[in-house]
Amino acid sequence: MAFSGLLSKSSSGNITDEQATFLKFIMDSGIQMKNLINGILDYSKINGEVLNLKKINVYQLIEKIRSLLYHNLNENNGQIIVNKVPEFIVADETKITQLFLNLISNALKFKKKNIRPEIIINGEISEQEFTFSISDNGIGIPVESQDKIFDLFGKAHNNRRVEGHGIGLSTCRQIIDQHNGKIWVKSALEVGTTFYF
Asked: How many CB atoms lie within 10 A of CB 100?
């Protein structure tokens, strides 16, 4: 990828439009491959890491997510709305942060054109577990894809308009499995998606 960048700089103004298109394709493919490799490395690390369980303030966790996604939220005019959630949970903070980050990033990625993205977080407490939901008003997931999206490389939308390699949601399932939980989805095209865990 570095060499294609050097070639692009050194040949600026000396190549045809067709050659420039080919070079851009090579550079874009290199970036996609790098992102894919990094995603696979992150995915493979999760299983090898021991859970570091501790008491986590859920409101502080969500504020951390807002901070991490600040530019993405601003760029898309996105809004995170927090309804009633438990104040504290016991979990691995790094992994639960990654879980929320992946799900909220997806909500922003799969937004509807010209519609302000709204992400709503809810949480309920029962005697034995916490159940969270993260809902959006995005493009939704086709019914035929809903069973596959948690598989490694399982993608909800097979078009090049939306970037992604199908690793984020499989990472979410891995994190939830490690916490002895479960994750599932309900979605309708052009209405939105809700992930439960």
From this structure: 23
pLDDT in tens, 47-88: 667 889 999 999 999 999 999 999 999 999 999 999 999 999
Question: Considering the entire predicted model, what is its pTM?
Answer: 0.74
Distance between CA 150 and CA 93 in Å, rounded? 21
Q: pLDDT tens digits for 78-133?
A: 999 999 999 999 999 999 999 999 999 999 999 999 999 999 999 998 888 899 99
User: Alpha-carbon distance 188 to 15, whole Å?
Assistant: 47
Sheet with 79-82, edge to edge strand ranges: 79-82, 118-125, 130-136, 192-196, 184-188
Which one, of 110, 165, 154, 164, lies nearest residue 134 by Cα?
110
